[in-house]
Design brief:
Blueprint lengths: L6 H8 L11 E5 L2 E4 L4 E4 L2 H4 L8 H13 L10 H14 L4 E5 L2 H18 L7 E5 L8 H6 L17 E4 L5 H4 L4 E6 L2 E2 L5 E2 L2 H14 L2 E5 L13 H4 L6 E4 L10 E5 L18 H19 L2 H19 L4 E7 L2 E6 L2 H14 L1 E2 L1 E3 L3 E4 L7 H15 L3
Helix pairs in contact: 3-10, 4-10, 11-13, 12-13
InterPro entries: Aminotrans_3 (IPR005814), Aminotrans_3_PPA_site (IPR049704), Class-III_PLP-dep_AT (IPR050103), PyrdxlP-dep_Trfase (IPR015424), PyrdxlP-dep_Trfase_major (IPR015421), PyrdxlP-dep_Trfase_small (IPR015422)
GO molecular function, one term: identical protein binding
Protein name: Acetylornithine aminotransferase
């Protein structure tokens, strides 16, 4: 560190300033509790934006990472990678779908892969090329040029990064998809719970109806499960919860428990051939060994009923807050451990988040003035209780 420079000064001098950062310096985490450099503790209701699915310092995960790191961290995908093959098998078995898996490093990359599969499908399966993808307003699908264009929020389509790839259109809701399909439409891409867009779940029945219609029309259904996947909504996939079978599913965030990983699962296993798509780091030893450990931990937690119990406990606490502070929040939204409180104004939302940090609680913002809660799936009841106590302290003066 340069002489006499604070961490904040160092960050501002050398790191590109693409985030409106908070400068609390966390140095350690245990479960869902973080500790800063002064030893102060914070309850973590954000889990790195739904990434730390099994909490901080999870012994099973960290020892799996350490053991793998001692052997091989990385070789290229030109060789077979044992934990990658085993993780793909595990994901397919847990999903209940007959699919193949491609591994990437992030949610945006997973969505890029899904769009490429859809585009090639549209090129090879029809007499006239189909390439158009319909997404929903308030959606979020990533930060690459293509996934920004797939994102149905106008604020992301600034002239700064134009021109954008053609072929994307947006509709307000699921009911509007039907009329938007034309003979060049290859796919509909949607989140079953819009995360960045306000923790907004769609109705099960309307999703099922759409899935059946798309199958009839031979239009692919791509479900972006980057945030909803890996038990976040209570089942392995939100698609399982909604009882649908998508053509393509994308995953990332919680799958590696903090190690960067993304994945595309598709039932169209033969669309891509050698050389069509690739990734240097995707599915390497370290990330897939981490993924296997995460799925072992969470599938056991799911099977023994612990996950369901935690979801219900967290939901009940959130509903209590929503009922008690009707002056601040319109309603409680979300599914599983992907929850939100819809604040009555952007100011209430902002102050709730800022005051929470002061009280030693990390929460997040989302669209539609939503205060977002994405705790680790393995959070303890004690941490939930303490977190809501601090949240109440944060909002009681608003």
């Amino acid at each position: 560190m340069e002489k006499n420079m604070t961490l904040e000064e160092l960050d501002k001098k050398y790191v590109l300033q693409t985030y409106a950062r908070d400068y609390t310096n966390f140095v350690k985490g245990v479960g869902s509790t973080l500790y800063d450099e002064n030893g102060r503790d914070y309850i973590d209701f954000a889990s790195g934006i739904a990434v730390n699915s099994v909490g901080h310092g999870n012994e099973r995960l960290t020892s799996a990472i350490c053991e793998q790191a001692k052997k091989i961290i990385h070789i290229s995908n030109l060789q077979v990678i044992e934990p990658q093959a085993k993780l793909a098998q595990r994901m397919v078995e847990l999903s209940g779908y007959d699919m193949g898996v491609f591994f990437a490093n992030s949610g945006a990359e997973a969505n890029e892969g899904a769009i490429k599969i859809a585009r090639k499908y549209g090129e090879t399966q029809f007499e006239n090329k189909r390439y158009k993808v319909i997404t929903l307003e308030h959606s979020f699908h990533g930060r690459t040029i293509t996934t920004v264009k797939a994102t149905g929020q106008e604020s992301f389509h600034t002239p700064n990064f134009s021109p954008y790839p053609a072929g994307f259109s947006y509709v307000p809701g699921i009911a509007d998809v039907y009329d938007a399909i034309d003979d060049e439409t290859v796919a509909v891409l949607l989140e079953l719970v819009q995360g960045e867009g306000g923790v907004q779940p769609f109705e099960k029945e309307e999703v099922q109806k759409l899935a059946a219609h798309l199958r009839e029309k031979n239009v692919l259904l791509i479900v972006d499960e980057v945030q909803t996947g890996v038990y976040r909504t209570g089942e392995f996939l939100a698609s399982n919860l909604y009882e649908i079978e998508p053509d393509i599913v994308t995953l990332a965030k919680g799958l590696g428990g903090g190690v960067p990983i993304g994945a595309v699962m598709t039932k169209h296993k033969d669309v891509l051939s050698a050389g069509d798509h690739g990734s240097t780091f995707g599915g390497n030893y370290l990330s897939t060994a981490a993924g296997l450990a995460v799925l072992d931990i969470l599938s056991e937690f799911y099977d023994d009923g612990g996950l369901h119990e935690t979801l219900l406990y967290f939901e009940a606490k959130l509903q209590e807050i929503a009922a008690k502070y009707e002056n601040l929040f319109e309603k409680e939204v979300g599914l599983g451990l992907m929850r939100g409180l819809r604040a009555k104004s952007a100011q209430i939302q902002g102050n709730s988040i800022k005051n929470s940090m002061k009280e030693g609680l990390v929460v997040l913002k989302a669209g539609r003035n939503t205060v977002r809660f994405l705790p680790s799936l393995t959070i303890s009841k004690e941490e939930i209780d303490e977190g809501f106590k601090r949240f109440e302290a944060a909002i009681s003066s608003l």
